[in-house]
């Protein structure tokens, strides 16, 4: 099973668009779009990030803004040690990091390799 | 408020926060519109409305009340203040675990736990123009008051006064964390919305 | 009139999501979402990028991937000198650059200030 | 193809490209699925189908034909190859401006213009595993053949052979531009789809 990606954004369209873009270059990778608040507004949803994390295997989380990062970190804090060991939070630009990470996951990269791919992504190729 | 915060008094305090936040929604939104995205009032009102609905339940002790506030805020606020206040109430509740009621020292322990939680969650320091600038002086004032033997009510008052001053002192500085950090020098002269809501939370029992 | 942003993406959802996110912090700034191919597929549309550029005043263009950058550069090459003088192509991460640029535009930044805000955006604040 | 490329022969060459691309769609897509996003065949088929529809019109000279190819590709391809081939045909057409027909030197001038255009548009160098690796040797071979007095047909053949060899030589290397650059070492052993389509374009008149 390849490493999965969880895309956390304030906008559901933005999260879905990132998944759409990254999926193109990584057909077999599971990509989770988690965007918007529970009411469909602009913001982040702790509960849906938590559901995505619980529904995933090894996964790298990418976020759009600082408040999304804090939401993701809170979710990770609530995980038990086993679950926490399979989740990494990337410090990466959202779109560029997601594409690079998706390609790394598609080629069978390990959790830390996929994380490194996200974090070394800079501009567009 | 009494000299100690038992479970019922803790619930009353949280209800009072809900009322103050509802009253101040527009004010918080205006501050956030100036140096953020204009949703802090709505975020806080939504969060504390959900919290208030939960307060009719049964609670074993203050910790359980405060933990319910934490998980409810974290799930309903939808902005940076969700994980921040969620962490504040969670770490604060953990600091008073096992106490049937909070005396002055208990309230100070809660506020210190909350302040350290916010600081860790936000990776922010004093002077970054965030709610940390209200929480940190509040924790210091609370500890000093408790050390002087102040009761729960007096410790909370001391914390609230320090938080209010801390919120005001966010005005002349630039932001290094949160959305206002995008503004650079243009954030100068404007109060941080999260520091302001922290002052209201700690001052709600007055 | 504040500087405008043109968001060029392979995905229409992604472009619209970036606009939604950035608009939140920049109420008065005109943000143009140009995503997907003319048939609504994944890719970029020279014609719609050109229309956005022609419909805008001073504007900074942000792109998701290298092929979007090449599309935008082609559009810019076809402009006359007057039009070209009011367009800048940012070398910036899409989401992070767009948010920073939108805030700079909202506060009345000049074309080059908005460009610099986009290009100095790194991670999330 | 004749010894010179007049307007009608230029149109015939472009028609032949459309036919070859349609035939090779699946092959190009397979290459792009391996080291890209799997749309190069569809992109090129869509682009040249639109081009072919335009070929029934009236054209004053080869430049006008080639410029129509450029603007049509740029508007219809939808991937990196759109601006790249669009720029190739545009800069190539500009290099033969004013000529009623292209002799060997004219064809070489077109290919050199196209190659330099692709290189500038993509900011790619030889060895970056892109279509530049087909265009640059093609331009060199075309110029050498033209200098030897080869006619249009022979110059195009020389360019096609060089492009084909260039495309094959993209296999053992890593990509430094385009989507394949995300793959690092894992791109080794796979041919670049754009270099392959360039070889088909230049070889279509055979
Ligand atoms: N990294 C951080 N550390 C501490 N506090 C922060 C941080 N980021 C934001 N804040 C606080 O959150 C407040 C904004 O909350 P809110 O408007 O609800 O969230 P958002 O910024 O996601 O819209 C800010 O005024 C600030 O006090
Ligand atoms: N920067 C570049 N310079 C030169 N050629 C490039 C560049 N980027 C991509 N290419 C070429 O484009 C081809 C891919 O075209 P295509 O699949 O149609 O576009 P996309 O990559 O947008 O899906 C690559 O095989 C390569 O030859
Ligand atoms: Mg806000
Ligand atoms: Mg918000
Ligand atoms: Mg492709
Ligand atoms: Mg493509």
UniProtKB/TrEMBL annotation, chains B, D:
<dbReference type="InterPro" id="IPR012737">
    <property type="entry name" value="DhaK_L_YcgS"/>
</dbReference>
<keyword id="KW-0808">Transferase</keyword>
<dbReference type="InterPro" id="IPR050861">
    <property type="entry name" value="Dihydroxyacetone_Kinase"/>
</dbReference>
<dbReference type="InterPro" id="IPR004007">
    <property type="entry name" value="DhaL_dom"/>
</dbReference>
<dbReference type="GO" id="GO:0019563">
    <property type="term" value="P:glycerol catabolic process"/>
</dbReference>
<keyword id="KW-0670">Pyruvate</keyword>
<dbReference type="Pfam" id="PF02734">
    <property type="entry name" value="Dak2"/>
</dbReference>
<dbReference type="GO" id="GO:0004371">
    <property type="term" value="F:glycerone kinase activity"/>
</dbReference>
<keyword id="KW-0418">Kinase</keyword>
<feature type="domain" description="DhaL">
    <location>
        <begin position="8"/>
        <end position="206"/>
    </location>
</feature>
<dbReference type="GO" id="GO:0005829">
    <property type="term" value="C:cytosol"/>
</dbReference>
<protein>
    <submittedName>
        <fullName>Phosphoenolpyruvate-dihydroxyacetone phosphotransferase, ADP-binding subunit DhaL</fullName>
        <ecNumber>2.7.1.121</ecNumber>
    </submittedName>
</protein>
<dbReference type="GO" id="GO:0047324">
    <property type="term" value="F:phosphoenolpyruvate-glycerone phosphotransferase activity"/>
</dbReference>
<dbReference type="InterPro" id="IPR036117">
    <property type="entry name" value="DhaL_dom_sf"/>
</dbReference>
